[in-house]
Amino acid sequence: MARTALLMVVGLAACKGDDGVLPADTNGAGDDCGETPPVIETLTVTNAGMTDPAVDDTCGAVAVPLVRITAHTTDEDGDLHYWTMHTWWDTVVDGAVDTSVASTEVSSTQGLSCRTFTADLATILCLTGDPPYATPVEWAATVSDDLDNDSSVVITTFTTPHADGTP
Question: Alpha-carbon distance 89 to 104, whole Å?
């Protein structure tokens, strides 16, 4: 299953340095709010329309469909002020997704340190034919909080749009 055909459109700033330490920011990334892992309450995948290469060529020179993956997430110790979301997919709809393969990753900061208890975390992906268009696909995600406490893997099924972006 090739992952290189899926390109991430939204790559939000903030990631770990070479030393594995989260960068400092105005929200206090790296604060010790507690060891409680985040919980993905709902995972949704939606059709996000088509790219417009004349406006933004992140996905290439040809218009392609987009999907938005959103994880409504809570964390009882409030450290979603810095988060990382990993996403995977596969075309075998069986309730399992192989998370040992490479994932797409997006990280960002938001809210106040140790006071961000809930967030809708999202990424938008370019579809270039892998996964196939107009096909039921299982999407999986995990979320890590400020101290790299990981949520459980959550899986949902969504049928990819056609190559022209229609559902």
Answer: 10
Q: What are the domain boundaries of the chain?
A: 7-13+37-159
Per-position DSSP letters for 87-155, written without gaps between them:
EEEES--SS---TTS--EEEEEE-S-TT-B-EEEEEEEEE-SSSSPTT-EEEEEEEEE-TT-PBPPPEE
Global pTM value: 0.81
Cα(11)–Cα(122) distance, rounded to whole angstroms? 10
Q: List the 154-159 sheet strands across, edge first.
A: 104-109, 82-90, 136-144, 154-159
* CATH class (in words) of the domain with range 7-13+37-159: mainly beta
pLDDT of residue 39: 98
Q: How far apart are the first and last CA of the chain?
A: 23
Taking the chain (167 residues) in runs of 10, the rounded mean pLDDT of each run is 39 37 46 90 97 93 96 95 94 96 90 91 93 96 94 98 95
Q: What totals of helices (H) and strands (E) does the chain contain, helices first?
A: 0, 8
Please state, as a whole number, how many other Cβ atoms lie within 10 Å of the Cβ of residue 11: 15
Rounded CA-CA distance 150/114 in Å is 16
Predicted pLDDT at 38? 97
Tell me how far apart the alpha carbons of residues 59 and 126 are, in angstroms, rounded to a whole number.
Answer: 6
